[in-house]
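Researcher: Predict the fold of Leucine-rich repeat flightless-interacting protein 2.
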Amino acid sequence: DANRQISEYKFKLSKAEQDVTTLEQNIGRLEGQVARYKNAAENAEKVEDELKAEKRKLQRELRTALDKIEEMEMTNSHLMKRLEKMKANRTALLSQQ
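Model: Structure tokens for Leucine-rich repeat flightless-interacting protein 2 follow.
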């Protein structure tokens, strides 16, 4: 009876050691996954920050370009009015002759 209990305890010990080994392997695998996910998250945050900076830069460039377009449209309008006045003056001068 004692031998049977010893054999049973040896089997339970062997099984427990296998379970411990399996759990240690799982811990190692999970720690590796955590490290990979952490690196991926850090890289994603870095890319996100870079994209935000690029977006701000592009928005600044867009505002500058829109301001320049508005300025050029105003200049164009002013020049068109001057041209119309010059044409009107020329027409008036030609009709006087």
